[in-house]
Amino acid sequence: MTRAKIAIAGFQHETNTFNPNLTPVSEFERADGWPAATRGQDILEVFPGLNIGIGGFIQEGQDFDLRPILWCAAEPAGHVCRDAFDTYCGEICAGLKQHAPLDGVLLDLHGAMVTEDHFDGELEILRRVRAVVGDIPVVVALDFHANISPAFVALCDAIAIYREYPHLDMAQTGVRAARLMRQRLILGHPFSRAFLQVPFLIPLSDQATGQEPFAHIFSGFDDLPVPGLISADAASGFPAADIPNCGPSVLAYCTKEPAAQQAADILLGRFLEAEQQLTKSLLSERQAIQKGVELLQTSARPVVLADVQDNPGAGGTSDTTGLLQALIELDLAPAVMGIFADLACIQKAWSAGVGDHFDHVVGQNTQIPGLTRKTATFEVVRLCDVPILCTGEMYKGIAVDIGRTALLKIVGPSNAIFVVVSEQRFQCLDCALLEHFGLDLSDARLIVVKSTAHFRADFDPIAQATLLVASPGLHPCRLDQVSYENLREQVSLIKASPGRDVFAQT
């Protein structure tokens, strides 16, 4: 029996349109937490076993004749450069032509890419892919934070979306996408579908699926009480993107259109019912530190302070000083902070050497009004120039390459304040990124992470409490303070409007 010939490719970027730094080709070509741009047969060697969507394609698609083309991703930042977008779209389309005729295409995309020319990067990718392959089945795996448009849904035969935040199921989403491809090929015609957009935006700080109300919203998708259910999913949206189709959405595939619409209505209802719960308070730097110190009086377990608005995994610069300044000024408890991205600081640390001291102006590259720079004296405790092997559930087995790193101690405060600094931005989502330097986090007091929710998978189990902090940064979590210009009229930042966008097709 002839195996279905399926092309596989990936091109991912989560674009923070409030970050002024463009994302060029070089950012996709280097490795960080994920592999560097990978091409052709190397994809079949690199990705199996990794928690990445295309790895799930490979795992589940053993009965397919897989034709790997390209996979690339870059750390979240500003708009994708025109040259980068055209380069990688061109590679994917050239590969599709090379492997033609094909029976289907599996794409590992993000869903929140914005380029210099396109509000909806993924829609343009699909348009270019369809121009090459025509009407053959195209199935896509998307990130939990995708901003999905009706036009994008119309161009896909099926979409599978991460269901967990932290994203513990990226590879499993790839598996689900490959299974949808198999079902689509067996069926021989498109699924019936329904797509609805949620009429309000939700900050990432409210989106963790281990906490309510998202724990309920994202539960039981495979068990919805509708006949002929094939698949149902929801995307929570990425609100750091000022684009028309920013925001959460739900979609369903069934054997009949009325059932698909029923499933989508159920999921939309969950969002609407939860709206009033989606306003978690964020503490100021001083409030968070003082609350953390109070908690430390009753338990020896550490307290985690999440610097949610300077999350490099959502386009933050990972170098803002608000929390660091407050830690030094209050001087209330020992603290560990990571990961602070500062190339100049690293250069000074390596020039000084372990045991020596140097002065440095922290936050001198930060481009955020109102943030002050902080001059401090640092002691070099440890230096590292090798990738750090992650051990937590989300990134287990992945060697994170963020260039040279250093563990520094701030000289002056009566309480020890340690800072992990790196050459490259990377979200502090795994305990190993701090423990690699000899720190015993179980004995730590305050642990400050530049992350919004991914840290929870590895840090929550060791912490007595997690406090979310609204220190200034380029990743906005107080959406009522954001000046949006391009949102569609049906979207609210605070209260849902009665209107909704509907896309349904048999």
How many E strands? 20
User: Biggest sheet: strands, sense, closure?
Assistant: 8 strands, mixed
Query: Kindly, what is the distance between the CA atoms of the first and last residues, rounded to a whole number of angstroms?
Result: 31 Å
Mean pLDDT: 93
The tally of structural domains comes to: 2
Looking at this protein, list some descriptive labels:
506 residues; alpha/beta; 2 domains; globular; MlrC_C; protease; hydrolase; metal-binding
What's a quick, concise take on this entry?
Its cofactor is Zn(2+). The protein has 506 residues and is an alpha/beta fold.
Describe the structure.
Belongs to the peptidase M81 family. Keywords: Hydrolase, Metal-binding, Metalloprotease, Protease. Pfam families: DUF1485, MlrC_C. Residues 305-485 form the Microcystin LR degradation protein MlrC C-terminal domain. Its cofactor is Zn(2+). It is a single chain. It contains 14 helices and 20 strands. By secondary structure, it is an alpha/beta fold. The chain has 2 domains: 5-278 and 499-505, no CATH class; 285-476, no CATH class. Strand 16 and strand 17 (417-422) form a beta hairpin. Helix 3 (53-60) crosses helix 7 (170-187) and helix 4 runs parallel beside helix 5 (121-133). The protein starts with a strand and ends with a strand.
Chain-wise SSE layout:
Blueprint: E1 5-12, H1 25-29, E2 38-39, H2 42-46, H3 53-60, E3 65-73, H4 82-99, E4 104-109, H5 121-133, E5 138-142, H6 150-155, E6 158-161, H7 170-187, E7 192-197, H8 214-217, E8 229-235, E9 249-254, H9 257-274, H10 285-296, E10 303-307, H11 322-330, E11 335-341, H12 343-352, E12 357-362, E13 374-384, E14 388-389, E15 399-400, E16 405-411, E17 417-422, H13 432-435, E18 446-449, H14 456-459, E19 465-469, E20 502-505
Parallel strand pairs: 1-3, 1-4, 4-5, 5-6, 10-18, 10-19, 11-17, 11-18
Antiparallel strand pairs: 2-3, 7-9, 7-20, 8-9, 12-13, 13-16, 14-15, 16-17
Organism: Aliisedimentitalea scapharcae
Function: Involved in peptidolytic degradation of cyclic heptapeptide hepatotoxin microcystin (MC).
Keywords: Hydrolase, Metal-binding, Metalloprotease, Protease
